UniProtKB/TrEMBL annotation:
Membrane topology: Multi-pass membrane protein
UniProt keyword annotations, A-Z: Cell membrane, G-protein coupled receptor, Membrane, Olfaction, Receptor, Sensory transduction, Transducer, Transmembrane, Transmembrane helix
Protein name: Olfactory receptor
CDD domains reported for this sequence: 7tmA_OR13-like
Domain of life: Eukaryota
Gene Ontology cellular component annotations, sorted alphabetically: plasma membrane
UniProt subcellular location: Cell membrane
TM ranges: 26-48, 60-86, 92-120, 140-158, 197-225, 237-260, 272-292
Domain G-protein coupled receptors family 1 profile: 41-290
Single GO molecular function: G protein-coupled receptor activity
Amino acid sequence: MEPVNKTAVSEFFLKGFSGYPALERLLFPLCSAMYLVTLLGNAAIVAVSVLDARLHTPMYFFLGNLSILDICYTSTFVPLMLAHLLSTQKTISFIGCAIQMCLSLATGSTECLLLAIMAYDRYLAICRPLRYTVLMSHRLCLLLAGAAWVFCLIKSVTETVIAMKLPFCGHHVVSHFTCEILAVLKLACSDTSVSEAFLLAGAILLLPVPLALICLPYTLILATILRVPSATGRRKAFSTCSAHLAVVLLFYSTIIFMYMKPKSKEAHISDEVFTVFYAVVTPMLNPVIYSLRNKEVKEAAKKVCSSRKACT
C-alpha cells in the first residue's frame, strides 16, 4: 500500500466553463438577469406577505420561507459564479468552499422538506377546512419551519465536515462551477465510503420521502375536490393548491432529470449548462408561478404599491 501524500489544499480552482470563453460571455448577462429577477421576485413575495395583513396565514408564512430559501440558495453560488465568468482567477479558499458547500446543501435540503410541509398545509385547508385554523396554528407553523431549517443545517454541516476532512493530496481542480460536494469528493485520495453513505442516507430522506409525503396529501385533495358538486367549487378548491403543485413539479422534475439520467464517463458541457439553468431558473420561476396563479398575491401587491405611492 502506497503512503498517502497529505499535501494541504488551501484553495480550489473551480473549472466551470473555463475552456469555453464565448459561452462564459453569453452566460454572464443571462445569469445576471435571472439572478436579479430571482432577488426582486422573491423579495417582493416576502415583503407582500409581511406588509399585507390578509396574507398573515400559514400558506403565505411557508411561501415567505420558500422565497427566503430561494434567495439564500442562489446567493450561495451565483455572485461568485458571475465573478468567475469574467475572470481567469477562478479560485475559492478552502474555508470558502466548505461554507458554500454547506449553505447550498442546507438550503436545497430545506426546500425539499418545506414543499412537503406546504402540501400538508394545503391538505388541511381543503380536506379539513372547519378545523384548519386550529390544526395549523401559528405555533405549529413556526415549529415545522424551524425544525426543517435546523435539521437540514445540522445534516449539511455533518456532510460538509466529513467531506472536507478527507485528504486531497494536492488535487484542487473542481470540475464544476461551485463547490458541489460530489465534485469535491472526486478529488479525495482516500476512502470516501463514509461520506457517500451519509449523502445516500440524506438523499433518501430528503427526496423520495418528502415526495411521498407530497403525493399522499394531493391524492386526498384530489379525491375531496372530485366530490365537490359544483364546477365553480372544484375550480376554487383546485386554485388554492395549483401554484404549489406547479412548483413541486418544476422542482422535482429537474432534480429527477439531473440525477436519474444515465451517467456518461466524461462530463459534457451541456450538462454543466443545464445545471446552471436548473439552479438559477427554478428559484426565479417560483415567485412568477405564485404571482400568476394567485389572485390574493396580485391584489396584495397592488395594495402595497398603491399605499406606497400614497405615502410619497
